[in-house]
């Protein structure tokens, strides 16, 4: 076996020949003999490094070799050659292993005194090549590590290594936490109360094994740079807080103590970390805010003057409510500064002038910042609390401040937020904040004592009990319970509780004072005075809180003397005087103590009866304390008694907004009522509603507030709501006059005038001297009358206005009230009388004379000279008719509304309105009476109205109408001006169009009316104008359509539409030969009669309207009513003729007599018909114009028929012969004569009748009416030969004739003739062939199906294309033989005997 030396040589030789496998084999043989052979491992390392894939074995053997001979550099060099190969680091050797090897190699090189340059270069290359190696590198470079000690001076300083390592580790942790949270968050619910805790636990899994805290400590310990150390101390603190939040509860407390100590140490060394300072104050858990170290606070404030928490702390110590003396603190600061100056002066070193100047400026700045004025304290707190939302201490400070200022409601949200913050800090940080938590609970209980008391008293007691359970000796909690009893005025329990507290805390003066006060309220006034006196003697100190406590105790003493005076009254009021002295002393001591002034006000008002001084005291008390309801009530009553509602509102608003008054306002409603009334007077109804509702919520039985609320609803237009409110008020007090009164007004606004009038009548009877009640009654009566007028109940409306005149008479003659509303109502009453001329005779002239006689007319002399209308002139006339008297009374009503001789004291708007009212009355008189003096007076008045106010359209309209007949240009200017002011008023456009029509400018009128239609298409006036334009243009069909449309739009109630529509309809139907079976014509004529019925009530003497009515009634065969109207018309014409002796009136009289003859003929009064026809004929003989022909024909027809029906056939033939001599052109006239002759019954007359008909056909073309008449006569005579000819003639009628046969008379005649001619020789199909043809030609005409199919007849009849009367529809339903349809027919026409019979046949 070869020796080791030989094997080593062989192995070395093989390596030299690059036979690495053989070298490996030989080296292994060496190791077999000597396992610790250094060179064998080196040779293996070298050989394996040259064999692909064996680098790990190479490193292994090199590493063994370095361990065998650590100081031999051969193996190290080979190892680092391998480490420098690609893919070795970090795939085979980790970064940590690499840097460990580097450390060992560096030590070897150092011991061998070999250069380290190449190694350092390799390390730098690795660091640059692999950024992920940085963490391992920095860890090996930490202070105290071998690598840092050996290579640190060449590679990196330890501080830099730690800084970089901290940065890498912190980012790595944050990334890991983010990944864990993102992964686990989906499994958690955000609504879970423990959501944040669970999230923190996820972070703790990372923080639990973190070395970051240790790294921070190590870095901070080696840092020489103060700024850097401060920076990393702050970062360490932030990191520890994060760790603290994530820790489990069981270990959180110990770590919190560690963090807290760190914070305190940082503050102790005046660290620059704002977080440390804030946490320092947050975690101190002060027992009392007055026990904070003010020097630390000031140091905090000076260091961070813009930090909100620092500002709030500084504001608190500067507040007068804290026990800190800021002036004393300033002196201490100055003394310290002076000591420093002395020390500095002891030094021999000179001070630079620039530095000295900077120091002086800093001192001046500090002096300026020392102290905050009290008025700025609250501003500072409020401005900064929003910036410290996570600070429990900040919320504790501001809530404590509000508690001291007794603004409990303002403090409440801050207390609740503070409690939440304490809970979060305890939960998240493990803070020990027992004092803070207790203080928040005490302040919360205190707030609950006063806020919305006694609503939260139970909660307050629970809190106090909980505090006492934890701290049985807590005096504040016990006193708090006593105060609750005092607030409840449960003096006995309060006394018992406070007595227990005093036994425990005899030196607590606040408790003693409360105890004395309970004694006083229990009636033990002497004992109470003794306790209060003792308390006053023991009070020490001059700060604000002490001064307020002293003032409170003195006030209680003064009130106790008043109690004593009430118990033991004396004539000299010695106790009141003593109380007075104490209060005066109190005010001198503290002039801002509001209860003192209020109590002085009580003394002045109740005992000294000095209202002036009482008012001043109460006012001062209320100024200091807006929650003093006693003072507020006294002041408000004084203001309201003097009608100073504006001041009363200011007082009430301050009282309602005052937090201190909220409790008493829960049972006091008058402030809300005062505000509601004031807002209602200012016409701010929506606001007043809210105030009245508030008053009612406080006191549901406050009837005045109910009435006010109803009045506000009424003013807002919420009438139904106001009705419910008034009904509620009347439930509370059925005799309340104003509730009844306003309910009546609400009923009137709802249109229930009857109930309203009854209620108002009852109210006026109960209070006959109240003017407003009577005026409202008169107004309601007038409104009711107009409502009836517009609904068409004109006569009833007149009866109502007569009642209103009587009411107005009572107001003017008995109450001597001449309100503007009164004259306005009277004007409306008289205008209604004038509008309904048919009832003008019922005008109560005597009552009106009494009304106008009760007041002198003033200020209208100028217009009196024009219209000559005064009460004296009116009474002196004896020939005036009623309509003229009514018009003059209307003018007088407008004139009497003028309040005085001179209108200069009135506003221009009122003066304009007065002249306008007079002008409109004058214009109405002119339009009715047609007397120029009234038109001139109207023009004068309208001009004056425009002079005072030119921006209202109404006066321009009136002036335009007044000047239409005088000056076209002036009228046009007026209407254009009115249009500019009110472009949507259709009446202006209509007047302008009528002005154009009067001057034949049809194009202009049409353009104006088109514009008017676009403005208000729903208004009937523009359509009437367009109808008139179409009529003037000769478009009769279009004008007729427009007149009908306008009549429909006006609901048949427009006077102008009524007469124009009647005229249009009659023009379409009179003389057109319409069949009386034409339902459309009957419907239109019926509408005309209904419209004219209203028209007659308004204008009963309009001859044209009466004539239109007569024509319509005659065609509707309503002869009875027509006869009455004829009598009226003839009487009117006779009166006119007697007055004017005008031949035209005589001619019209003759026409009316002819018409009357026809009407009498229709009534069967043949003798009267003959008499009137002969009278008319005699009158017509005296005239020669062409219009007499139709009247003469009418007279001859009337006479002929009357004599015929009177069996005077000779006279009949005479008149018929005259008719034939006058005209043979009218087929209707020829047919009438033929019918009469045929009806005589002789062969001669029948032959003559047939001859006349055939002569007409021979002279003219075949006429449908004549043909049908011949056919009917032939059927009656039963001449079969002639019937065949007639049948052929009827079947060969032209299509236009068939179409004009609307009632299918030809089809019926064909059927009848066919039956006559063929008897039974024709089948049913042939028999109905004529009807089938008709049905084919007119499938939508139900008559065509009558003989074919009853079901189809009913369906066609009900498809809305046929116009049927109720009787016809009933007949159709009866023919269906169906019970349900028969019942429908019976419902439509109960008097139809055929339907009744069909119904009976069903059972």
Automatic annotation (TrEMBL):
Gene Ontology CC terms: Ski complex
GO terms for biological process, alphabetical: nuclear-transcribed mRNA catabolic process, 3'-5' exonucleolytic nonsense-mediated decay; nuclear-transcribed mRNA catabolic process, non-stop decay
InterPro entries per the UniProt record, alphabetical: Ski3/TTC37, TPR-like_helical_dom_sf, TPR_22, TPR_rpt
Pfam annotation, one family: TPR_22
Keywords: Repeat, TPR repeat
Stretches forming TPR repeats: 475-508, 669-702, 703-736
SMART domains found in the cross-reference section: TPR (SM00028)
Superkingdom of this protein's organism: Eukaryota
TM helices/strands, residue ranges: none
Full protein name: Superkiller protein 3
Organism expressing this protein natively: Naumovozyma dairenensis (strain ATCC 10597 / BCRC 20456 / CBS 421 / NBRC 0211 / NRRL Y-12639)
Gene that encodes it: NDAI0J00130
């Amino acid at each position: 076996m070869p020796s080791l030396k030989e094997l080593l040589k062989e192995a070395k030789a093989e390596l030299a020949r690059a036979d690495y496998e053989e070298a490996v084999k030989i080296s292994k043989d060496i190791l077999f003999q000597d396992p610790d052979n250094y060179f064998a491992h080196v040779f293996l390392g070298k050989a394996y490094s040259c064999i692909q894939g064996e680098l790990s074995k190479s490193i292994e053997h090199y590493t063994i070799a370095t361990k065998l001979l650590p100081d031999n550099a051969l193996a190290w060099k080979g190892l680092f050659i391998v480490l420098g190969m690609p893919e070795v680091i970090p795939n085979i050797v980790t970064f940590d292993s690499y840097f460990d090897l580097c450390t060992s190699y560096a030590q070897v090189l150092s011991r061998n005194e070999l250069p380290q340059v190449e190694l350092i270069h390799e390390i730098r290359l690795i660091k640059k090549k692999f950024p992920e190696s940085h963490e391992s590198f920095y860890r090996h470079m930490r202070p105290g590590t071998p690598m840092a000690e050996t290579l640190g001076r060449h590679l990196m300083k330890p501080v830099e290594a730690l800084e970089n390592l901290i940065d890498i580790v912190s980012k790595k942790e944050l990334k890991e936490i983010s990944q864990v949270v993102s992964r686990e968050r989906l499994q958690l619910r955000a609504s879970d109360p423990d959501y944040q805790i669970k999230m923190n636990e996820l972070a703790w899994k990372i923080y639990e094994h973190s070395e970051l805290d240790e790294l921070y400590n190590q870095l901070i310990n080696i840092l020489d740079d103060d700024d850097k150390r401060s920076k990393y101390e702050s970062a360490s603190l932030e990191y520890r807080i994060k760790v603290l939040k994530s820790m489990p509860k069981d270990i959180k407390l110990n770590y919190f103590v560690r963090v807290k100590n760190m914070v305190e140490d940082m503050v102790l060394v005046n660290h620059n970390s704002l977080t440390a300072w804030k946490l320092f104050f947050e975690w101190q858990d002060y027992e009392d805010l007055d026990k904070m170290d003010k020097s630390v606070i000031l140091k905090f404030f000076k260091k961070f003057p813009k930090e909100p928490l620092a500002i709030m702390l500084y504001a608190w110590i500067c507040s007068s409510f804290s026990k800190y003396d800021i002036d004393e603190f300033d002196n201490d600061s100055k003394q310290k500064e002076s000591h420093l100056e002395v020390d500095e002066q002891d030094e021999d070193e000179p001070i630079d002038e620039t530095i000295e100047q900077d120091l002086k400026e800093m001192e001046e700045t500090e002096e300026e910042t020392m102290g905050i004025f009290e008025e700025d304290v609250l501003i500072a707190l409020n401005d900064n609390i929003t910036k410290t939302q996570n600070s429990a201490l900040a919320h504790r400070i501001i809530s404590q401040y509000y508690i001291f200022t007794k603004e409990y409601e303002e403090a409440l949200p801050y207390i609740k937020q503070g409690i939440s913050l304490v809970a979060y800090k305890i939960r998240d940080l493990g803070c020990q904040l027992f004092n803070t938590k207790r203080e928040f609970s005490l302040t919360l209980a205190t707030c609950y004592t006063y806020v919305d008391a006694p609503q939260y008293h139970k909660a307050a007691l629970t809190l106090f009990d909980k505090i006492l359970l934890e701290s049985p000796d807590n005096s504040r909690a016990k006193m708090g319970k006593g105060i609750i009893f005092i607030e409840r005025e449960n003096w006995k329990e309060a006394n018992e509780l406070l007595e227990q507290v005093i036994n425990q805390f005899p030196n607590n003066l606040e408790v003693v004072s409360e105890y004395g006060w309970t004694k006083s309220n229990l009636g033990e006034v002497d004992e109470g005075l003794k306790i209060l006196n003792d308390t006053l003697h023991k009070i020490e100190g001059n700060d604000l809180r002490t001064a307020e406590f002293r003032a409170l105790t003195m006030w209680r003493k003064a009130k106790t003397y008043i109690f004593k005076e009430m118990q033991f009254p004396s004539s000299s009021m010695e106790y009141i005087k003593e109380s007075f002295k104490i209060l005066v002393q109190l005010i001198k001591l503290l002039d801002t103590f509001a209860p003192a002034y209020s109590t002085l006000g009580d003394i002045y008002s109740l005992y000294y009866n000095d209202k002036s001084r009482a008012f001043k005291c109460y006012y001062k008390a209320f100024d200091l304390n807006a929650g003093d309801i006693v003072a507020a009530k006294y002041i408000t009553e004084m203001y309201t008694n003097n009608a100073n509602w504006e001041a009363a509102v200011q007082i009430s608003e301050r009282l309602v907004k005052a937090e201190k008054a909220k409790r008493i306002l829960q049972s006091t409603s008058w402030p809300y009522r005062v505000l509601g009334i004031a807002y209602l007077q200012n016409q701010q109804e929506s606001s007043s509603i809210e105030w009245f509702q508030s008053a009612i919520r406080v006191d549901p039985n406050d009837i005045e507030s109910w009435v006010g609320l109803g009045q506000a609803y009424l003013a807002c237009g919420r009438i139904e709501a106001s009705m419910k409110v008034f009904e509620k008020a009347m439930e509370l007090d059925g005799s309340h006059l104003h509730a009844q009164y306003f309910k009546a007004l609400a009923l009137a606004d709802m249109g229930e005038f009857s109930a309203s009038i009854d209620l108002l009548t009852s109210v006026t009877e109960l209070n006959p001297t109240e003017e407003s009640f009577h005026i409202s009654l008169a107004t309601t009566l007038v409104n009711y009358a107009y409502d009836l007028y517009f609904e068409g109940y004109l006569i009833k409306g007149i009866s109502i206005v007569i009642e209103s005149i009587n009411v107005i008479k009572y107001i003017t003659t008995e109450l001597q009230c001449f309100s503007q509303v009164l004259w306005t109502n009277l004007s409306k009453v008289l205008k209604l009388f004038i509008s309904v001329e048919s009832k003008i005779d019922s005008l109560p002239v005597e009552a009106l004379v009494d009304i106008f006689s009760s007041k002198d007319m003033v200020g209208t002399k100028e217009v009196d000279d024009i219209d000559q209308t005064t009460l004296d002139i009116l009474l002196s006339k004896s020939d005036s008719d009623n309509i003229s008297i009514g018009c003059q009374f209307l003018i007088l009503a407008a004139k009497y509304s003028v309040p005085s001789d001179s209108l200069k004291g009135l506003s221009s708007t009122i003066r304009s309105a007065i002249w306008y009212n007079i002008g409109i009355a004058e214009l109405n008189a002119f339009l009715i009476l047609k007397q120029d003096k009234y038109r001139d007076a109207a023009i004068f008045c309208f001009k004056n109205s425009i002079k005072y106010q030119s921006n209202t359209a109404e006066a321009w309209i009136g002036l335009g109408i007044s000047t239409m007949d005088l000056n076209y240009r002036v009228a046009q200017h007026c209407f254009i001006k009115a249009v500019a002011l009110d472009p949507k008023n259709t009446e202006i456009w209509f007047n302008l169009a009528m002005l154009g029509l009067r001057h034949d400018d049809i194009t202009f009128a049409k353009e104006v009316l088109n514009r008017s239609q676009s403005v208000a298409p729903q208004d009937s006036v523009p359509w009437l104008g367009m109808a008139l334009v179409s009529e003037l243009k000769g478009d009769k069909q279009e004008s007729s359509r427009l007149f009908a449309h306008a009549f429909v739009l006006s609901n048949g109630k427009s006077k102008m539409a009524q007469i124009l529509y009647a005229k249009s309809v009659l023009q379409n139907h009179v003389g057109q030969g319409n069949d009386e079976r034409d339902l459309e014509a009957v419907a239109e004529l019926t509408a005309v009669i209904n419209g004219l019925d209203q028209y007659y009530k308004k204008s009963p003497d309009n001859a044209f309207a009466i004539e239109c009515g007569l024509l319509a009634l005659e065609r509707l065969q309503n002869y009875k009513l027509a006869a009455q109207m004829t009598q009226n018309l003839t009487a009117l014409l006779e009166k006119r003729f007697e007055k004017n002796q005008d031949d035209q009136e005589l001619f019209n009289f003759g026409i009316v007599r002819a018409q009357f003859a026809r009407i009498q003929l229709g009534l069967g009064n043949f003798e009267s018909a003959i008499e009137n026809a002969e009278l008319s004929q005699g009158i017509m003989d005296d005239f020669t114009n062409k219009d007499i022909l139709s009247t003469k024909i009418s007279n001859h027809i009337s006479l002929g028929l009357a004599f015929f029906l009177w069996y005077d056939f000779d006279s009949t033939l005479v008149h018929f012969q005259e008719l034939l001599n006058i005209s043979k052109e009218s087929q209707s006239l020829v047919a009438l004569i033929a019918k009469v002759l045929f009806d005589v019954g002789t062969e001669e007359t029948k032959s003559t009748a047939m001859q006349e008909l055939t002569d007409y056909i021979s002279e003219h073309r075949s006429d449908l009416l004549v043909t049908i008449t011949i056919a009917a006569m032939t059927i009656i005579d039963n001449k079969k030969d002639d019937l065949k000819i007639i049948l052929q003639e009827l079947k060969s009628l032209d299509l236009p004739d068939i179409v004009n046969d609307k009632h299918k008379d030809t089809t019926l005649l064909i059927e009848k003739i066919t039956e006559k001619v063929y008897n039974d020789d024709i089948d049913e199909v042939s028999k109905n062939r004529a009807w089938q043809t008709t049905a084919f030609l007119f499938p939508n005409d139900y008559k065509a199906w009558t003989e074919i199919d009853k079901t189809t007849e009913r369906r066609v009849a009900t498809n809305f294309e046929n116009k049927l009367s109720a009787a016809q529809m009933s007949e159709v339903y009866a023919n269906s033989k169906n019970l349900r349809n028969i019942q429908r027919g019976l419902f439509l026409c109960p008097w139809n005997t055929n339907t009744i019979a069909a119904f009976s046949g069903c059972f």
